Amino acid sequence: MPLITFAGHTYQASSEKPLLDSLLAYRLPIPHSCQSGFCHSCLMKADKGQVPACSQKSLSNEKIRQGYFLACQCVPEQDIEISLPVRNKIPGIITGKTLLTSTLVALDIAPRHPFHYEPGQLVTLWAEETLRSVEPGADYSEGLNELARPCYLASLSGQDASLTVHIQRRASRKFSQWAHDCTQIGQKISIGDVRGANIYQQLSSSNLIVVQDGCLAPVLPLLRKLCADTTASEKSVTLVLQVDHTDNLYEQALIHRLVRQSPNLSIQVCGGLQGKKQLETIMMEPKPVYRQLIIAGDQGFIKKHTQQVQMDIQTLPYS
Ligand code: FES
């Protein structure tokens, strides 16, 4: 069994399961959320020893060089000494809270320091200050370690005063429950580093954007930027909104205003069971004019709808 040294103490870790599981079994305060390599809230640093390359594959070269890795993706193969990184977090205040559908809430957040971000990018939000110093032997199991979540920024940098995120209610996610039930205007929240690709920059001449139920946030800033960009007349976007129930449609006034404003933007709503079939037909035989598919949804939705697609694909996964 590999030996893991953390905060001056040494622990035995399993060589068959993720390091995060072993550390949490010792009730250590390791921040985590998705446990699937997406949110980066379990980012740690190997100060001595090597971690498997697969635990670093979504990190920048600079971070890899410095020994950072994701604890949820790391099945240790040797003894290592690890630490929690110092995180760049910006304090923010919740300035708005709107229920968009019965299961989707929008939070507006004013960061203490304004910062720039691009359409399609996300930040990790932290419910409270969760990275406390580690006291050996203390039991952190009831702490706030899971109250972090990556969220796509639904606002447009340079246009909107606040950051806006949309959070789906999920019974199994503590952050989601906290965001829906415990937040109020004036409350503090911490904002992590911006990450993710600038999908606006990657738009091709003809784009098909497919959005799963409740996943409009990552594409809203792209649509707004496209409609405001007078130099983008050669770029066209067809937006296909899949919704299980029409009650789940939101921001429709904004979307239709954008469609009226821009001849380059069209929209198709695929609602209910019939809509699912419509979407399958669209994906089986996408019009040859499309050069690129941008798809936002959960992993299963993305996998299902990209298997046979022959064009360039940009994914905006939800954890
Ligand atoms: S908990 Fe490891 S990346 Fe999300």
From TrEMBL:
GO molecular function, one term: oxidoreductase activity
Xref: InterPro entries: 2Fe-2S_ferredoxin-like_sf, 2Fe-2S_ferredoxin-type, Beta-grasp_dom_sf, FAD-bd_FR_type, MRET, Riboflavin_synthase-like_b-brl
Residue ranges constituting the FAD-binding FR-type domain according to the UniProt record: 87-201
Xref: Gene3D superfamilies: 3.10.20.30, Translation factors
Highest taxon, organism lineage: Bacteria
PROSITE patterns referenced in this protein's UniProt entry, alphabetically: 2FE2S_FER_2, FAD_FR
Domain spans labelled 2Fe-2S ferredoxin-type: 2-88
Name of this protein: 2Fe-2S ferredoxin-type domain-containing protein
Native species: Endozoicomonas montiporae
